Amino acid sequence: MIKEIFMLRSIGCLSIVLLHSIHIGIESMTIREMGELSALFFDSIQMILYYGTPMFIFISEFLIAYSYKNRELPSHFLKKRLRYILIPFYIMGVFYAIPFFADGIGAGFAKIGLNLFIGDYHGYFILIIFQFYLFHLWFHRRLRKWKPWIVLTVTFIINAGYLMVFNFTPPPESLPFGEYIWERFYWLPMFGWIFYFTVGFYAGTYYENFRAFIQKYHHWFIAGPVFTSAALLILFHTGLIEVHSSKRTDILIHTLVCSFFLFYITSRLKELPPFLEFISRYSFGIYLLHYFYIFLLDFFFRLQPVPIGFTYILILFFFSLGASILTIQWVNKWKYGYMIIGQIGKPYQKQPSE
């Protein structure tokens, strides 16, 4: 029950929903009618919001490291996560493949295979965190023994180097499926995310020291998101890093700074905002479902488009968010509903020390 994690989880979730709403909105004809300047503005907002997915890597490992810093992992550690996280990922992977059956049975089953085994839909994040569940299970004792600054430095170099290969080099012509690997598959291996994992591990393991660090250098973290956002936009719009996703090398620092900024701001709050606490509890289901409702609304909207400009982005955002929450509530009324869309998180309870 760490209120800062509730805040990070809700903001990360809302950022992802808004990011995808902008992505689909910009692609629609009504947004194009706004002109290049407006499209450029929303494109820039997308770039800044890319911290959402990597922030969840940090959150996931932080919670595990904090929860088990003074005790051993339970025997049901993986079993529990298979039931509540991986099974919903598989079910939604099949669900998002259904439209591809319109192109034939072969295309449909091929898409199911891609979704389930290499995360070829927006739920790919689940396969990444399961790699880290295993990594934590096998290496948490060693990570505690090693010096944090050495591990953090090495993992940053590995993470940044890995992303730079795919950010700055073209796929080898002789490599089978090279284009697909360079455009999407490289997202899946843990090397592209391992720095977030180690930061989360040491922040959770040494929580008191981490909080003191945030408080001591809070001035840097308050100003940090402004500078990292500016750097992102300069590097992107000048063409120095053309990748348009969260798998950019410069997102490493941006995500870290934004996470620490939110952590500090939340630590200063006497009460956790009820709306954000609510979103945090539904965040997993929202993450899995929201894209379906964005696609659904956009499908009908394109049949009879109305020139409403950037308001369309807000409509996509609020409709997908609200419809996802209602669906999560409805499905979780069933005994095994949590295995379809994930369970609803427990409410936040204020700690005596706060």
Automatic annotation (TrEMBL):
Domain Acyltransferase: 7-327
One Pfam family this sequence matches: Acyl_transf_3
The entry's keywords: Cell membrane, Membrane, Transmembrane, Transmembrane helix
GO CC terms in record: plasma membrane
Main location: membrane
GO molecular function: O-acetyltransferase activity
Biological process terms in GO annotation: enterobacterial common antigen biosynthetic process
Family: Belongs to the acyltransferase 3 family.
Identification of the protein by name: Acyltransferase 3 domain-containing protein
